[in-house]
Amino acid sequence: MADPATLPDPAARTLYLAIVREGGRIRAADVDPADREALDRLVEVGLLVAQLQDASYSVVDPRVATERIGTAIRQQSARLLAKAEQLPALMGELARAYDASPKRQSDSTGVRYITGKERIRHEIERLSQEYPCDGMAAQPGGPRPVAELADSLERARRFHGRGGTVRSLYELSAKYDPPTVRFAAQVAPLGSTTRVLAVPFKRFLVFERAIAVIPAAADYTSAAVVDDPAMVAFAADTFETLWQQADGVNWAALEENSAESAIHEQVGALLAQGFTQRSIATRLGLSERTVAGHIARLRESYDAETLFQLGWQMRGARDV
């Protein structure tokens, strides 16, 4: 049986008006099969009453039904309010167990430690749900791991779907990795802003300036979750300082123009500034072998016999 507090839907109202226009009575045999559901609804809410003697239905004064439905709604509301008042007590045991779990307990310094990359990823996902508005992410290491990019994109979509915005810092070499460039271009329309930084920095995250996740081991297999206000403020201010030093990137344009072409141009620009092959590799986060390949193509383009001659010719070309 339908909920008596539910009001008649448009189809039921239309049928009621049609029956009223026909004198307030309709025989069961005259009911169109398409109207059967609407007729049943009118009976359920009390706007029609069945006459068994002649197998027909008669309309009921809506004011009578209104009083009955209104009473049912008020009774239902009272039951829902009572349930709402009981909710904290019903959930209290679960909440206490959640707060008492090892992942929620902090020591007196406002720091708790998590070991294992899988547990760290789980904690970051949980924090992104509890603090959905503003995120800061310093992500060193150059190109993002290709195997993780699909999951990262889904996490970004969920986070931004909850109204969040994220600012991320990548190393300069991330600009020259096509999968990373594609990922940054995909999350930009969602609400992510990604910049690149040419100086070394550590990995850490800050959620809504309320909680931070910082490395507790050099290999990032252990992390500290910090909720001490002073420590979180320091992490957030550190991020802001790095953010001001970082360069903005048009990731969509970079993806369209090919990251490989951008690497070649960057190697040439640094070579013209006097950087050595090794220093270029270090600065761009590339292997010396990769840089050597770009330099070989540049020497061929400029018809240069030595690296010194190539750098000299490229500086001259840029000064013209």
Please describe what this structure looks like.
The protein has 320 residues and is α+β, with helices and mostly antiparallel strands. The chain has 3 domains: 1-100, Arc Repressor Mutant, subunit A (Orthogonal Bundle), CATH 1.10.10; 111-255, Endonuclease Chain A (Endonuclease, Chain A); 258-319, Arc Repressor Mutant, subunit A. The protein contains 12 helices and 11 strands. The chain has helices at residues 10-21, 36-45, 62-100, 117-130, 146-161, 178-187, 229-245, 251-257, 259-272, 277-284, 288-302, 307-319; strands at residues 25-27, 48-51, 56-59, 111-115, 134-139, 165-171, 192-197, 204-207, 211-215, 222-226, 247-248. The strands form 2 sheets. It has an 8-stranded mixed sheet, sandwiched between helices. Helix 1 crosses helix 2 (36-45) and helix 9 packs across helix 11 (288-302).
Gyration radius over CA = 34 Å
Q: Low-confidence spans: pLDDT under 50, at least 5 residues?
A: none
Helix content class: 40-55%
Main-sheet strand order equals 4-10-9-8-5-6-7-11
Shape: elongated
Query: What is the β-strand count?
Result: 11
Distance, first to last CA: 87 Å
CATH architecture term of the largest domain: 2-Layer Sandwich
User: Structural class of the secondary structure composition?
Assistant: alpha+beta
Q: At the first level of CATH, what is the class of the largest domain? A: Alpha Beta
Q: β content, as a range?
A: 15-25%
Number of distinct helices = 12
Number of domains: 3
CATH fold-level topology of the largest domain: Endonuclease, Chain A
The description of the largest β-sheet is: 8 strands, mixed
Mean pLDDT: 82
Relevant CATH superfamily of the largest domain: Endonuclease Chain A
Order of helices and strands: HEHEEHEHEHEHEEEEHEHHHHH
